[in-house]
User: Fold these one by one.
Assistant:
Number 1:
Amino acid sequence: MMGDGSWDLRVFVTDLQTERQIRVKGDVHIGGVMLRLVEDLGVQKNFMLSDQTLDFPEPFVLDPLGFTIPLRRKNDP
């Protein structure tokens, strides 16, 4: 964690077979994370967000302050 409360979040994008690391804070919502990924990747494709999923293979702490994600969700077409 950095002095400003941010940390690096690694995200693997399966459709593009690429991993990105973005700096986030605990107040960033998932839509903000996805927007930053799209901007960073330069994606020009139209897609339905309902077709996209997030996969959390193990419970983990999203926010170093203790916000835990205790689930796994994956919908591959």
Number 2:
Amino acid sequence: MLRLLPVLALLLAPMCRAAENLTECEKRNETAADSTLIFVFNCMSSVVSLIGVAANILNMVILTRSWMKSSTNVYLTVVSACDTLHLSAYLLFLLLRTKQDFNLKTLSFFVLRCSSYFSNATVWLTTTFTIERFIAVTKPILSQRFCTVGKARLASFVNLLISLLLTLPSFFEFKFMPCRVLDPKTRSYMKRFEPKHTVFFKSIGYYYELFMAVMFLALPLVLLIVFNSLLIFSVVKATENRKFLMRNQNSYGLHTGGVLLTSGSVPRIPLRKASDGKTQFAKPVLNRKPVVTEQQRITIMLIAVVMSFVLFLTPSAVNTLMNTKLKNFSMAANFLVLFNSTLNFVFYSLFSVKFRHTFKLLIGKPMTTTLCLIREKVQTRFGDRCCVSNCTRRSESSQVEPVVKDGTNGFLDPGPETPKMKKNLSRALLQRHSKRAGQRLASSNQSVAHT
């Protein structure tokens, strides 16, 4: 039997080499697939981060206008600033993570911890303005005392300070130690710096990670789900009450001072004069839809922001609390956190009319001015041909009557007042009078409805 062992070894040697080659091929394929996935993840994360930085800068520019000052906008401005710094720090980390210099490695780790700090601060800021909005909706008298701009700034500062104190130990988690790694291509050893846990963090690492997971993931998510559900319930209830009041108003009218206001007793409003000189009258329409105010839109907007926040933060919470070792799941969870930081501009634009108007005011006018300047440069560059063609088109489309210039004062004289001009002027005055009368009636109806 002992003599047969060398023979068996010779026979099994090719099979062992084939198995080793197969496992090496599988490892190479897995390594190639992992590197491709990491490359795609880095590209997508970079694009999303760049878009998020631009969107959050726009948010801060719009929300810091003087006419946008409110307690809710203070929280949203600080959230936009934290999201901007979080995405910028993550972009810088992606640039520095492949460097092998000791200083750059240390800087990349510091930048990553700064990104985590701003992300943690955003979590509690979102929780704070959700609670603040719940107080503003359900306790209007109490909100006049607590839901102010000064209190919002103080709460934001306290949130940032507490988040910094709780995140500060994570900056001392690793230290980079030099080591020699074999390069498979050149078959030579290279000097690299690998992170290793410090002695301080080895003793408290497990408990600290558990504490951070509870403080910045589990507890905020529970509070957000509870208060967001209460906000949704209050909005639905307020909508039903408003529809009920509008239905009663349309059916029975309003009792004011013992007089029942119906469609027959409401005074008629003069609208315009007909061609025969008689004034036409119309009655106000009582069957109107309930108006959604700006405050209700803000509440709905914050509900949407919180729902997306909970939805995109839950995978990261599951990954951290369960300590999963799945690399693909971890990358997907991190990408969802980055994607959530870019969505606030979309929600603000969809639900806030005031935000849209401010955006048009700040962005629309400069864009129009830029287009006009580009058009002038194009006309001056391509000579008189473009200008002559434009002038001929304008002259063919509209013929302007010549205006006589007054020689006494140098101003344009419009000529004598004709009966047609008098008629147009009286019609404009009548329309203005009817519009003001309708506004006064609407304001009186609203005051009666409130009483």
Number 3:
Amino acid sequence: MRQLPPPQINSTNRCLMGGPHPPAQGSQTSISYIYTKARDGDRKRTNMATTSFTAPKLSSPTLQTLYRNLPVSVPLPKTRSSFSRHLSPSISRFHHHHLHRHRLFSVRAESENGAEPPRHYDFDLFTIGAGSGGVRASRFAANFGASVAVCELPFSTISSETTGGVGGTCVLRGCVPKKLMVYASKYSHEFDESNGFGWKYDAEPKHDWSTLMANKNAELQRLTGIYKNILNNAGVILIEGRGKIVDPHTVDVDGKLYTARHILISVGGRPFIPEITGSEYAIDSDAALDLPSKPEKVAIVGGGYIALEFAGIFNGLTSEVHIFIRQKKVLRGFDEEIRDFVGEQMSLRGIEFHTEESPQAIVKSADGSLSLKTNKGTVEGFSHIMFATGRRPNTKNLGLESVGVKMNKNGAIEVDEYSRTTVPSIWAVGDVTDRINLTPVALMEGGALAKTLFQNEPTKPDYRAVPSAVFSQPPIGQVGLTEEQAIKEYGDIDVYTANFRPLKATLSGLPDRVFMKLVVCAETNKVLGLHMCGEDSAEIVQDLQLL
């Protein structure tokens, strides 16, 4: 899943169920009310309410002197206190600050007992990885008066051991290029819809894949340039190359050593492809965003949000699409009724689901076509086989083990509630920690870290009621608890659902429908969760989450 876009005011979106437009004549609208009492078999999740966290204003020059006297390991509180602030992952606009200040490249380091002699560092903060979290933390730290450097690999649309790019996954290989391709793919459905509204075409509309790829890549180049300017305008030094930690205060970038009082790791994650026979013939989500030609027939292995989003993209661009999942339903962890509904809607658009099938091997034929062998048999004739089987933190070859940074079995860096690793001077934010892998969350974590380190204001990220979206077709928006989670946590709940045919579909003649679900605490009438699948779901849920 990727982050919800910023709220957009749209008059047609203001009415969810009771606005100015009544149900269309002939539409089948069903609203059911379910009252559940079952403390032993119920559902869970918590509230809403987030606050915007915008870029801080530049502090006075004396702030550098103030924090220079702090110990190397910031003494964070072990219990909540009045100065523990909470940040929320709501999406804020960029605030550009043109900074004019003297750079400070050395700081005084003291141990907690004051016995360590003074040390001089090249930077107050050195960030490895210029993705969403790293850029946010670095920019805010510089605005707070710290001297900051960021290292990042050279730009490429596909990441590797030697390529990356300023902007990270969301900007270069995730949210942005994916949404551009979603937009491109939706036109075929809209052409079909338009027939019922009187539009006629002399010939079948044709799509030019090379034009889409060229324009998409040009936009990515523009955006990575913007991110570089953001860092430069904040006074952050950008170093191109691969960073590796040498000791708790030293980073090696392609043979050159840099010292820093604090080191931040924000290198994100990478797609994961399981090792099966013939896996070298498969592509991942990075490659799927930059193919030289459109797939004619594609197998997508996986039932998560990435799999559904690419299935919608390729289906909309007229490819034949097959999804192979190990379970009976897609989107494990989502509300059960949402899982059922989105599967039904995607099937109606021509996507074929192969449930309870696990891939065992990929075979390449003499003509170049691919076959996928599963526990239930073999499907032949694919031009592409894509694995959307999750992502893994990008922590290999960073030198983390040698300096004592602890990681879990998947390679995710373990951090405390302030994003500090097991080494006091090393911190981590974003997907590399595998907490909540969403761009707004990484932004929140980066901003909180900058306040913790350089404003002497220990700040915990707030993970309550984080909204999320799946840009499948139809899309999904959700926030709060699923019905199942709410029962487990609250016991007695009320559930309100609506499954209806939207006004647009009455003339288009297409089988499009919308599903909405509200989960409420029966005792307090507190809204515990909102789940929606249908056109504009992401924007609608984002707006309601802000209430």
